Amino acid sequence: MNNFEHNRESWNELTALHTESSFYNVEAFKAGETSLNHIELEELGDVKGKRMLHLQCHFGMDTLSWAREGAEVVGLDISDASIQKATELSEELNIPATFVRSNVYDIEKVLDETFDIVYTSYGAINWLNDLDKWAKIINRYLKPGGVFYIVEFHPFIYTLNDDSEITDSYFKSAPMETIVEKSYTDKSEISNKNLKHIEWHHSLSEVLNSLISNGMRIEFMNEFPYQVYNCFPNLTELSEGRWVSEKHGTKIPHMYSIKAKKLSGSK
Ligand SMILES: C[S@@+](CC[C@H](N)C(=O)[O-])C[C@H]1O[C@@H](n2cnc3c(N)ncnc32)[C@H](O)[C@@H]1O
């Protein structure tokens, strides 16, 4: 089984746990609450009438939340279970959206159109090995002048061990393999003990340069001294929805966002 197939299998299993978790709180979403955070809502702005491609959409709550904001959305994810649940939610809640199961890197086999916005968020690019290829895909799926937006966990966070000490290099290239024992959501135990995650860490310069060298102009990049999710070890809640490292507080970066525009004439 290749790395992506391992990840597909483990995300299939995690999806079942996540849809039942208080972390994702599907009931609140069904009752009308957005699953989006203030950062992406404010930074991406008005999406009414815009065609949006959401890469790595998991089981679709954020995708459908953008649809509630007025965007016409296509969500893509490698996990069969995620795409099935996303489609069910779309039908049950009567929120129009299209969901496609595919590896990001195989997108051209399943999608042939262009969008005003390509969007991806929180815990996405660590599943991708080749950011140059990723940025080429982003450019290919944007209309001229279209916008790419990402909000992600800061790569610095991945240098910290469970005691919040810097033990890992900020610069990594080799794939990192872990046995999946628990989900980050409710720390639920995984029953299948043979699941593996294969991840890649990407420094900020790698992310930015992949976009710059593939026809994208950076409009802004922001770094945040807090997390919006309690999904890393040893976080403490500073104020509602703002989680920080117990040991380092707001002295270290926790998340970043980038907005970039497709340069006309680039492909
Ligand atoms: C942490 S979740 C992202 C959650 C996201 N913030 C959201 O919209 O809910 C990561 C997602 O990436 C998907 N994924 C992992 N590797 C992928 C790949 N190569 N191509 C497409 N999706 C992938 C997983 O199936 C999972 O749903």
UniProtKB/TrEMBL annotation:
Top-rank taxon: Bacteria
Keywords, alphabetical: Methyltransferase, Transferase
Pfam families linked: Methyltransf_11
Gene3D superfamilies: Vaccinia Virus protein VP39
Residue span(s) of domain Methyltransferase type: 54-150
CDD domains to which the protein is assigned, alphabetical: AdoMet_MTases
GO biological process assignments: methylation
Keyword Iron-sulfur attached: no
GO molecular function: methyltransferase activity
Signal peptide span: none
Matches recorded under PANTHER family: TRANS-ACONITATE 2-METHYLTRANSFERASE, TRANS-ACONITATE 2-METHYLTRANSFERASE-RELATED
Protein name: Methyltransferase family protein
Organism: Marinifilum flexuosum
